[in-house]
Amino acid sequence: MSAFIVVDMTPTDVEKLKEYGAAAAPTVARYDGEFVVRGAIEPLNGGNHRETKVIIQFPDREAALNWYESDDYQNLIPLRDQCMDATFHLVG
After folding, report:
1. From CA 42, how far away is CA 52, in angstroms rounded?
2. What are phi and psi of 8, to 5 degrees?
């Protein structure tokens, strides 16, 4: 069954976000991940929403965790933390 990494984020540094995105995308592909959607959030209920949502689909939970825990991705976390305020969730 597919698993999804759901990211709720607000950019804090647009230039570093471009750098992070360019570096992170190939790591996702190595684990057969695919970006399903990226875009602005339009809240319909509740509060405290971040600006953007990203949903990444993986073949299964193991692939999603292997991506997130990989050295390639873990090495990008300091850059990620410089360019966004984010919460990552694993679903599935």
Report:
1. 9
2. -105, 125
DSSP β-bridge partners for residue 8: 53, 87
What is this structure's pTM? 0.92
For residues 72 and 30, is the Cβ–Cβ distance under 8 A? yes
pLDDT, average across residues 26-51: 93
Q: Is 52 helix (H, G, I), strand (E, B) or coil?
A: strand
Domains of the chain by range and CATH? 3-91 (3.30.70.100)
Q: What is the pLDDT of residues 77-86, one digit of tens each?
A: 999 999 999 9
Six token digits for residue 81: 């933390």
Q: Please report how many Cα atoms fall inside a 13 Å half-sphere around the Cα of residue 15, on the Cβ side.
A: 0
Q: What is the pLDDT of residue 75?
A: 98
Residue 42: DSSP 8-state:
-
Give the ranges where the chain is alpha helix by DSSP (H).
14-30, 61-69, 71-74, 77-83
